[in-house]
Amino acid sequence: MRKNVLLAGVLAAALVPGAALARGPDASEQAQTRTESQQRQVRVQGIVEDVDYDAGTVALRSGSGEALELRGSPEQIQQLGTGDRVDLQFRDFDGTLWLTSSGGPAAGAGLETARAGEVEGTVASVDPAAGTITVRDQTLRAHPEVIEEVQPGQFVSLSYAELQQVPWVQDVEQEAQLEAD
């Protein structure tokens, strides 16, 4: 609940220039703000308080003093460290805040992968908010922007890079038609 109020306050300030953080907006205002933020990027400036590379999260204290937890792919958070002053962009994916593709530091620079591969098959499940996609009984992590157009039942070809023993989807090729059972 605190996360929703915090999110609504930060988004209200970001969406309405000069607005003070909202104090307990009603449910309809929160829903409208959440819907608007899901369709647009929000910019935040602040100081990195913690980076959990295994979980793919960045704890950030905004310029207004609000605490945020943003998720990101390894490419987005690899160069961040505690105490860094940052200017980031993020989007709300079903209540989970993710750095956008243009929201983090330069992607890919110096990123070392243990293994790369591909998997093809029918999508069993996809959860952009959690950043996961399951194909052929294999669950892979993915940035929501990479998988938000993918639907269960669709045949896909995924390329991935394994980072700290976690497979992260790098690219998705979608077939135009659903695979027959």
3D architecture notes:
The protein has 181 residues and is α+β, with helices and mostly antiparallel strands. Helices cover 19% and strands 44% of the residues. It contains 4 helices and 10 strands. It has helices at residues 2-15, 27-39, 74-77, 144-147, and strands at 42-52, 57-62, 67-71, 85-93, 96-99, 115-127, 132-135, 138-141, 154-163, 166-178. Strand 2 (57-62) and strand 3 (67-71) form a beta hairpin. Helix 1 (2-15) crosses helix 2. The radius of gyration is 17 Å and the shape is elongated. 32% of the residues are buried. Residues 1-31, 33-37 and 106-111 have low confidence and may be disordered.
Short description:
This protein has 181 residues and is α+β, with helices and mostly antiparallel strands. Helices cover 19% and strands 44% of the residues. α1 crosses α2 (27-39).
Task: Give a topology summary.
Blueprint: H1 2-15, H2 27-39, E1 42-52, E2 57-62, E3 67-71, H3 74-77, E4 85-93, E5 96-99, E6 115-127, E7 132-135, E8 138-141, H4 144-147, E9 154-163, E10 166-178
Antiparallel strand pairs: 1-2, 1-4, 2-3, 4-5, 6-7, 6-9, 7-8, 9-10
